[in-house]
Amino acid sequence: MTPRFTTLMLAGALLCAAIAPAAAQQKPPASPPAKASVTIGAATITIDYAQPSMRGRKIMGELVPYDKVWRTGANAATTLKTTAALEIGGTLVPAGTYTLYTLPGEKAWKLIINKQTGQWGTQYDQAQDLARVDLKVGATSAPVEQFTITLAATGPSAGLLTMEWENTKLTAPFTVK
Predict the structure, then answer these.
(1) Which of 54, 118, 137, 154 is the most exposed, having the fewest neighbouring CB atoms within 10 Å of its CB?
(2) Phi, psi (rounded to 5 degrees) for 57
């Protein structure tokens, strides 16, 4: 081996030794990014959000206060993207990108479909609301540690949006137009 090659190998080994501990110390985000997606017919519906966890906290009525708009997840605003028009709760939602918020209540919840996009999750502008839709409120079969959104096809042009966290299950049926 030449001295130059030995020096390059030693430099590479030192660099790897310096990077490895830093990579090992990186923790996953407290509220990791998540995605729910479904294809119904030719339409693709996707929701991008972040998943906060209970971590021993009381969620509904405390961390997520009643009667105040909630960002519906964590971090950046939760987005709904649809390649086709949808009908959700009697409201026509044209193809495009929207922000989803919720208005929690002890007995009733509303899904807020907002036209403003690209903002941080707490930057809510009610003047940008496209619609407020009633959500069906129920209980989960077991506690749900991490906030979860799912989208599922329920027919050739129908689907179901489901949100679950702690002991609360929220659903909104929709149809592809």
Answers:
(1) 118
(2) -90, 155
Interacting residues of 28 by C-beta distance below 8 A, sequence separation 6+: none
Cα 177 from chain centroid (whole Å) = 24
Structure tokens belonging to residue 168: 């609360």
Q: Give the Cβ contact number of residue 78 at 10 Å.
A: 26
pTM (2 d.p.)? 0.84
Beta partners for residue 101, in sequence order: 112
The domain locations on the chain are: 29-176
Q: Are 36 and 47 in contact (CB under 8 A)?
A: yes
Pick the range with the lowest mean pLDDT from 11-20, 87-96, 121-130, 149-158: 11-20
Please give the angle made by the CA atoms of 63, 140 and 131, to the nearest 5 degrees: 65
CB 98 within 8 A of CB 77: no
Q: Are 79 and 117 in contact (CB under 8 A)?
A: yes
DSSP state of 77: P
Q: What is the pLDDT of residues 91-100, one digit of tens each?
A: 999 999 999 9
CB 25 within 8 A of CB 66: no
